[in-house]
Amino acid sequence: MGIATIVPAVSQRALCIPDLGPRKRDAALQLMLAHARASGALREADSVFDALLLRERLGSTGVGKGVAVPNARALAVLEGRWVLARSERGIDWNSPDGLPAHLVLLVLSAPETPMIAHVESVARAMTLTRLARARARLLEARGAEEMAAIVQQVMP
Q1: CATH number of the domain that 60 lies in?
Q2: Counting beta carbons within 10 angstroms of the beta carbon of residue 48, is it exposed (0 to 12), middle (13 to 18) or buried (19 or more)?
C-alpha cells in the first residue's frame, strides 16, 4: 500500500474532526482512533494506542507551530489512514517551541506498508501543515467537509 492510497483517505468526512474536545494528548489520541476504527481502518484501537504512546516516549510528535503528527505502523491497522483533527483550545504535545497543538494529523499505516512509505506519509502530513497559510485555512475551516477539501487542494 503506497502513499497514494493513504492520503485520499482523509477526505472521508468521518476522518476530519473539526472540534477535538479532549484537552489531554492521550484522550485526543483515543478519540481519533475511535474515528479511524469507525471508518473501518482499524481492527481494534488499544494496541494502536499503545504503539502511539510508545512512539511518543521515543520523542514527541509535536512538531511546533501548533501542529502534532502522531503516527504508527501497527498490526491492528487494516487500511492506511490520516485522521485530521482541530483543537480550538490546543493540546500540550510537548512541542519543541512549547506551543500547544491546534492541528493534529494522525498517520496510521498497515503492517504490510513498507517503512519508507510510512515515513513518506508522515513527511507529507508535515508538508500539509508547513505553510502558515495552509495551517490558517485548516484552523478557519467551517467543518469536516471544508477541512477535507483543503487537504485535497494542498495535497495534489
Answers
A1: 3.40.930.10
A2: buried
